[in-house]
Amino acid sequence: MSSLGRSSGFTWPLFLFVLSIPAVVAAQGVYAPGLGPVNRAMGSAAVAAPIDGMGALAWNPATLSGMEGSELSFSVEMLIADIETASSITGLGAGVTKSDAGVVPLPNMAWVHRTHNNRLSIGLGIQAVAGFKTNFPADPTNPILAPQRSLATFPLGGLGRVYSEASFIDISPTMAYALTDRLSIGFSPVVTMGMLELEPVVVAGVNDANADGVSTYPRGMGSRYHWGAGVNLGAYYVHNSHWRFGASVKTPRWMEDFTYYADDEIGGPISGSFDLDLPMVISLGTSYTPSDRCLVAIDVRYIDYENAAGFGDSGIDASGAVLGLGWESIFAVGLGLQYQVSEFLVGRLGYVYNENPIPDALTQFNIAAPLHYEHTLSTGLSYQICSNVTISGSYSYSFDSEISGPITLAPNPPTAMPPIPVPGSSVSSTLRSHAFDIGVAIAY
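Predicted structure:
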C-alpha cells in the first residue's frame, strides 16, 4: 500500500485548511464586496460616496459627516453559490461533485446619528463582513472526495465528506468629526465575532488511534464563537460640489486562536488550534456628481493577505496539522453609478473586479472555500414609500470562475520540503453565485 494511502493526513495536508477560512462568495478575497442593498448595488464603492449608513460604516467612518441626516437601517442578503469540484488521477478515475450549501443568510444593521454639534456624527454597525458555507458529500467516483478509508477503490485515499461554515461579524461603534467644512476624519474601534466550523478537523492533525496503519483526520466540529479586535480609520474631503475624495484603513482583525474539539478513531478526545487574523485593507476612493440626479464613484483597495496570520503562512507540522494557506495580497476595484429616476425612485449599477489571491498550483487547497472570483456585476433600486422610510433591493451575479492545478502530496513523514505533484493528476474548482439583498432605512 502506498505511503499516501497509509496517511491521508499527509496526503492532502494543506487542502482542508481552507475550511477554516472565513469567506464570502464573490468577495474581495475574504471580505464582502458590499454590505447592504445600496452598497452592493454600487459595487461597494463608498470611500468617498456617503449615500447610505451601511456603506459608510463598512468602508470609511469619516463619511458619516457627509450623510444627509440620521438613519437606522436593516438588511439581509441571501447568497446562493453554485460550486463544483472535479479531480482525476490517471488510471484511478475521475469525477465531478457539487456542493449542496443551500442559501446563506447575511444580516446587517447600521445606525448613523447627526448630533446637535453639527461637526460630530456617531454611529454603530453590526455587519456580517464574511460568511460562507460548503457541503460536499463523500464521492467514491471523485478521487479527492473519496472516503478517507476507501483504499480498495482508490489506493491514494481521499477526504470523504467536506463541510465548512464561516460567519464573521463586526461590531463597530463609530465617530466622525468635521475638522473644517471640507475635511472630516473618522475612527471606529471594532470588535469581531468569528465562528468557523470544519470537517474533517485538519487543524488537529492526523491520528491512527486504532493502529490499523491508516492515519486520518478526525471528524467533528466542536468549537465556539471566537473574539477579535481592530480599528477602522478614515478621512473624507469635499473638494467642491462635484468632486469628493476619501481614504480609509481597516487594520487586521487580530483574533484569538481558534480551537476545535473532536474524537480520534476510537472516540478519544483530540483537539487542535490555529492562528488566523483577517487581513488589513487600505482603500482610496473618489466620487463625482455631474448633476443633482447622478453620482459616479470608484474605490481602489489593497488587501494584505501575505502578512495576515493564517493567510500568509503555509505548511504543516509534524502531526500533519495545517499551519497556513500561503495566499497572495491583491488589489480590488469597485465602480458604482447612481441615478435619480424620479422624486421617489433611485437606480444603481455596480461592478467589482478583484485579483485572484489563489495561485492555480494551490487549487486543491481551496476547493472548500473557492474565493477565486474576479468579476461581479450588481444592480439595484431604492423606493421612498413615505417621507422617512425607504426600501432598497439589489441583485448581484458573480461570473463563472475556475482554477485548476495538480493534486499534490506532502512528504511522509512531514518535512520542510514542498508538496510533490502526483503524475497524471488534476483538480479544479468552479464557482458562480447569485446574491439578493433587501433592506429598509428609516430617516429621522
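Summary: The CA atoms of residues 258 and 273 lie 5 Å apart.
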